[in-house]
Amino acid sequence: MAESASQELLLAAAFVSDAQYNRNIPFKTSPEAVRLYYLYNHWFMRTATYFFIFLNLSLAVFEEPAVYPLPFLATSLVEVLCLLVFFGRLMHFAKITCRSVFWKDTKNICIMVAILLSLTDLAIYGALRIYNIKSIRWSRIVRPIFLVNFAESRQIRRAFRSIRNTLPEITYVFLLFMFSLLMFSLMALKLFSERNLQTAEGLPYFRDYLEIVFDLYVLVTTANSPDVMMPAFDFSSWYALFFIAFVIINTYIFMSLFLAVVYNNYKKHLKNEIRTLAYMKRRKMIEAFNLLKEEEGTQFVVREAKWKQLVKLVAPDISNSHRELLLRISDDEQKGFIDKKSFVQLADLLNIQVITLKIRSHPLGQWMPRVYRSAVSQFLRSVVRHRGFVWTYDVIILINAIFIALDEESPYISYAEWVFLALYIIEILLKIYTYEPRAFFGKNQFWNWFDTLIIFAALTATILNTTLKSTTKYNSQRILDIVFILRVLRLIRIVDSIQRFRVIMNTLINIVPTMLTFGGLTLVVYCIFAIIGMELFHGKIQFFPANSNAPYALECGNPALKDSLFARGKYCKNNFNNFASSFIVLMELTVVNQWHDILCLQWNVMNWNFVNTILPLIPFILFANGFANVTAQPVKLYFIAFHIVMVIIIVNIFVSFILEAFFVEYSLEKSEVETAIEQKIQELGMGVQEEALQDEQLLDNMESADNDLEGEGGMKSQPKGLVFKIASKRYRTVDALLQRMFEAEIPLEDEGLSFEEILNLSPAAAVPGDLTSERAV
């Protein structure tokens, strides 16, 4: 019986943990499977998986064409090790899920296929290498699949689902855009082809229809504006109207339509994602409750002892005092049990960071109490605690920033830097004298650590520079300027005190976790296009030092670039000769500027190589020119496809997320759970008053009364040894905020759908109760 209860408690803890972290893995509930599930979700296992995923991706840096070449045997052994780890992780996942669920999961099939393809390609490439036969490592393009399809990468998969769901609507807009582009290109052909105009390089201007289409497509990105217009504009000023109309319709209207369509679809499918997460979370909490419930009168409840054991399993790192606080919130009337409504909120309670602050006396108050508690000492500490002290130093930092920007040759400015350094040292010493040191340097006191480290760095750099000034090229004042510039960041707190600025700051902080998701998404796209680019363009362009005597050094190693703007502009390092260079080129393409020059460069090089190779062999120049045109088309498609995927789709999805985060931040209010915690903290007399935070709200800094914990002087003495406060509400993801808004609309009596039904929810699925789609978002 005891063993059965222990297993039920372990299973309930797994459900609560899944609800807390929004995991939706359908694991088996047998005791062995539950233990394996705990191991699967252990931080070490997840960290090791990510390590081998990125190790596998980084092999492209060491494989041919390599940035840092390593022997093929070394890279192949590392790749085999990574594939074995991936296979082991997949088998671990198979052990905790039902067989039918495992084989229906597309991501598992993708991982197995990617492992099989990688091993097959590795074996073929190695065998051909033995016989000195050059081959292509085509399987490298599937390596990003591991980053996307493992269970840990659910956020990246969501981003890809957003792209997939958005594509149908984007296609309609893109077709209209292409129709407009083709029509304007046809008009341009009729307007300019008979004018015998030439570009600045002396080339024919707007005489080939496909070239016109491409040039106008580049104009949509503004990368070749106003260059593409100038020959026609020089001929007649009236022709500017044609380009103005084109830019208004295609750049401003159609590009805005792309963003509108992406945002509308993103919001619609985000609604479904959040609804699925909310129902899954509710369902898991109810499953946990059903495992632990006992009958109490007319209702089912969870006993206090079981609740404590559950919380210890789910959150072993929280303190006993924190756990007791959560119990007092869940069992408000201290009946000895937790009802269903309070139990369902446990996952939200655990997600809210409650800081436990211990009241300690200042060491100086123990070592020399008469001096520390004297009238002069108390007055000095009251001055330091006053908000005017903070404002004074904010003004000093602002003046310091002005001095840094002034003429550093002036001796008065040079002396002023030493005055500022002395003032900053005095500030830190006064704060350490006033506030209890362990509380002042607590793990949540970012600005205190920041200020102290900056002053310490400035003092250390100045001493080292004075000692070693004969070997450095910066004088002491310049070193102080460089370090003090970082202190100007403290002025962010002034901006944060303004409500409108605070909304922007909150939005920026809330999108930081999602930046990692879109960083992973960008990494996947970059890896795929970089590997394709290396296979297409490797060796076509070379970089040579300025004093090189190599043939065609000034033409980037290729005669096709003789007298070209690309060579004269010294863009030779923009090539696909290795993984790092490819990433840099793709970054330049993402920024859009000059991307058409890079595209034209690669196209010209391919045509030149083809003509030099084929013409001596085949006398039919007609076929040669025709094949050259065909060969050029994939080059165009490569760059245009990257522009569409990265700039039009992914960047617009990221912009959509920022818009949604901004709107949510404007409408954000405290959640019901957070309010309950704060009320209970104040009822217990163990809280930090909210009013004390109004003037100093950024990152829970120590410069307001809320953290004055030395227990005497300047603050009411606390009768208890602990106080609590809610950590900054800035550190919440937008997904969590939207999910909480949706959960508030779900009635408690609605136990929701089954796990399988929840996972199969569609955007058009009916929402239980009186919940409308507008209210869901």
Automatic annotation (TrEMBL):
GO terms for cellular component: membrane. It comes from the Eukaryota. It is found in: Membrane. One of its GO terms (molecular function) is monoatomic ion channel activity. It is a multi-pass membrane protein. Signal peptide: none annotated. Keywords: Membrane, Transmembrane, Transmembrane helix. The chain crosses the membrane at residues 43-62, 68-88, 109-128, 170-189, 238-263, 388-406, 412-434, 446-464, 507-532, 610-630, 637-659. Residues 47-268, 389-667 form the Ion transport domain. InterPro entries: Ion_trans_dom, Volt_channel_dom_sf. This is Ion transport domain-containing protein. The lineage of its organism: Eukaryota, Metazoa, Chordata, Craniata, Vertebrata.
